Amino acid sequence: MYHPKAFQIMLLFLFLYSTNPYVSISATYEYLSSGSSLSVERSDDVIFSMDRRFSAGFYNVGVNAYCFTIRFTKPIKFTPVWMANRDQPVNGRRSTLSLRKDGNLVLTDAGRSIVWTTNTTSTSPVQLRLLNTGNLVLQTSENIILWQSFDFPTDTLLPHQPLTGKSKLVASQSRTNYSSGFYSFNFDNDNVLRLYHSRLEITSVYWPNPSQASWQLGRANYNTSKIAMFDLLGHFQSSDNMDFFASDFGIGPIRRLTMEFDGNLRLYSLDERTGNWEISWQAISDLCTIHGLCGPNSLCLSPPDKIRCSCPPGFKLKDDTDWSQGCEPIFELSCDPLESKFIVLPDIDFDGYDYNITLGATLQECQNMCLELCSCKAFLYKMSGRGICYPKILLLNGYQSSSLGVKMRIKVPRNMTISGGDRLKVTPLKCNPNAVVPLGVVYTQKVTNSSLKYLLWFVSVMGGTQLISIVIAWGYLYVRNKDSSSIEQGYMLTITGFRKFTYAELKKATKNFSTEIGRGDGGAVYKAELMDERVAAVKRLEGVSQGEAEFLAEVSLIGRVNHMNLIPMWGYCVEKHHRLLVFEYMEHGSLAENLSSNALDWEKRFEIAVGTGKGLAYLHEECLEWVLHCDIKPQNILLDKDYQPKVSDFGLSKLRERRGIDGSSFSRIRGTRGYMAPEWVMNQPITSKVDVYSYGIVLLELVTGKRSAGSNVVCEGEGSVCKNLVTWVREMMFETDGRRGKIEDIMDTKIESAYDVAKLDLLVKVALYCVEEDKDARPTMSKVVQMLLQDESGD
Ligand SMILES: *[C@@H]1O[C@H](CO)[C@@H](O)[C@H](O)[C@H]1NC(C)=O
Ligand SMILES: *[C@@H]1O[C@H](CO)[C@@H](O)[C@H](O)[C@H]1NC(C)=O
Ligand SMILES: *[C@@H]1O[C@H](CO)[C@@H](O)[C@H](O)[C@H]1NC(C)=O
Ligand SMILES: *[C@@H]1O[C@H](CO)[C@@H](O)[C@H](O)[C@H]1NC(C)=O
Ligand SMILES: *[C@@H]1O[C@H](CO)[C@@H](O)[C@H](O)[C@H]1NC(C)=O
Ligand SMILES: *[C@@H]1O[C@H](CO)[C@@H](O)[C@H](O)[C@H]1NC(C)=O
Ligand SMILES: *[C@@H]1O[C@H](CO)[C@@H](O)[C@H](O)[C@H]1NC(C)=O
Ligand SMILES: CC(=O)N[C@H]1CO[C@H](CO)[C@@H](O)[C@@H]1O
Q1: Are β-strands 136-140 and 47-48 bridged in parallel, bridged antiparallel, or unpaired?
Q2: Ligand closest to CA 21
Q3: Atom 4 (ligand 6): residue with closest C-alpha?
Q4: Is there an atom of ligand 8 within 6 Å of 594 CB?
Q5: In what order do the strands lie in the sheet with 105-109?
Q6: Residue 341 CA: which ligand is closest?
Q7: Residue 697: per-residue pLDDT
Q8: Which residues are noted in the entry as ATP-binding (predicted)?
Q9: Residue 65, SS3?
Q10: Would residue 631 show up in a list of annotated catalytic residues for this protein?
Q11: Which residue has the CA at smallest separation from atom 3 of ligand 3?
Q12: Mean confidence (pLDDT) of the chain
């Protein structure tokens, strides 16, 4: 049987085998076969790759803690490539990795609990092999790959190992603790590869430069294939146009790309003579731009090669062995404005977490604002233009840079005396192997082979022309930006993200809630123009009475959801009885409004169907928190300026449910008549399939142009019986004599434009599949998307 992946790997294997000088043919060719196992207690229970470069076995990661690990065999320093159970090490006694007769690979802790499994089954015998590529594969006797470690990277990518939309590299906790840490490298929802820091419920992007649009950075967000890898020569390429070469480009050294515990992504080459790993590329050179290295309330100071963290005057290190814990104040602030003063720190900024942004304030006004606001910890005042005031409620991502030209003013008690002036002192770190201590920069620059030299020359010429075009593009942008005098805007851009708004602010932005643009059962929606001139939609929730903390917990969940077919939430407001949500404004309103005009040709309708499906599939399956929508209907599908659909109102059912319980008028039924799945009425369990049903109805509306709001919507001829939309379409498409109906009979007659019969046919087929009475017969949303897209890749 032909299996493309196996074939590729075989080719690669042949390639490695024939070109690599380090391959030594060994007779001890080993693998694990059905019914056998490796034990943690026998140190020689190790599977080797044929060339012995990689080995897989149990490795000690702590006191009586072992992980099943693929590692490089050779370097003296333990270099793991992959771990099965990095977050759940097993005991040193009686733990095993067993390949069961049914084809399942199972890691058992101390002979008791299963900590990890591949969840595979096979009726024919299977083998576990470690390929020369470093890929651990579970394959059947027919060479079908059931499972492979390459599909589930931990923190390292090997040559030809793809990083896809489904995988990500997650750094380990520290140099010595291999469990999942705080930094990751993966494709974002907009198809761009980024580096993230997540800790304490806060996730932020720090690379590539988050204050610039992806196109400005040469990254493409239109290519949805989401695939990246580097080759044996050390050339990395990604579908978002991220592209780099190792500094020692060429065949030869063993390489790995690792997301490291210090937040940098590095490509390493092995120096075979010394056994050391040399850095041959790294993502970030200005290490202070990495978020979270210096923890809260601290400042990152950046001499050329390594970072130092410092506490501002009046603060001390929380843990003097670990900078990432940050600093804590040695004083207590009083809320009384008369009890506080400010100390000035030049060339310092803390990124983000502004309470609000006030344009046209004087320094004195800005200072008073921070004094009167109890939660204000510091403020930044910029003189540019009319004067801008940024009161900070959290001091995170602090850094020093002489190019900033700004002064940060930190609030301290009035009677506090600062010794030693305003100079920043670097607190030396006590030794702790677990602490995040960033690595220095080492670049190898070896060109030993003349044919390689030629290659390198060629590459640098190519790189040079690219560089020139970047410089030209940058110059162009710079000139364009100059005349719109937007150093301020540059700063504003970095303040994007979720934040709290005050009621007064939203009242002003909506011009006293004067422009209503929609109304759902959650409340009315108003158009607003925010301070930074972004146009927003503000939803005023009715009857939600949770306290701030509870409300914030639910709302920030919605705020974290980030997908191009889901409406982005920019912030919220909770004040007294007011509960408001702030979303991006959608130019073309809702699908419901646009369905009746003939602006939506068949192509747009199909795109809307696919996009909506993708958004829902993400909600159901990709989000960490499982969110049901429960109220899919054309009113809740909004269209942006390019008619791309964005699903709105998701997650709100949770807020409303809370209200129901509090108000003791809890009604189980949610949703809108005409779109509700039969389970609601029949008192069956509510699963994600209720959304699939409603989605199916929306598809039928897209095709027929008829509304499903009431129950009986289609009345044919005079005096004939009226039917609901689903029954009518079913009957039209499958007429009783067995002859299949034609799409033309149900199609929206308002549209005269050309259409693709096959696509429309597919849409109807999928729609009818989604509105099956039996919820188990309906497909999942990801299956729906797959079905709709199958057609595209087929032609
Ligand atoms: C690694 O860090 C995690 C989280 O801090 C901790 O739970 C775990 O015990 C550590 N593992 C080892 C082997 O020290
Ligand atoms: C196997 O299934 C379990 C439970 O369904 C899941 O938690 C685990 O991640 C799966 N393992 C793999 C390797 O897919
Ligand atoms: C998207 O990226 C893949 C992989 O890099 C490439 O093969 C494909 O041609 C790209 N598609 C477009 C439309 O650029
Ligand atoms: C920011 O908040 C302060 C304190 O609540 C308030 O006085 C000020 O008017 C707000 N600025 C804006 C632009 O809403
Ligand atoms: C500053 O004042 C606070 C209360 O007003 C007092 O508790 C504290 O001891 C004073 N600190 C100094 C250094 O005088
Ligand atoms: C350079 O590489 C080429 C092909 O890879 C090889 O034929 C040649 O012998 C090498 N030269 C040296 C000096 O190693
Ligand atoms: C805003 O609207 C409310 C109620 O509609 C009204 O009482 C109030 O006077 C209005 N405020 C302004 C500033 O127009
Ligand atoms: C093309 C078209 O008809 N678009 C309309 C969609 O609905 C919004 C809101 O009603 C209108 O503003 C658009 O003109």
Answers
A1: unpaired
A2: 6
A3: 451
A4: yes
A5: 37-39, 96-99, 105-109, 113-117
A6: 5
A7: 92
A8: 539
A9: strand
A10: yes
A11: 239
A12: 77
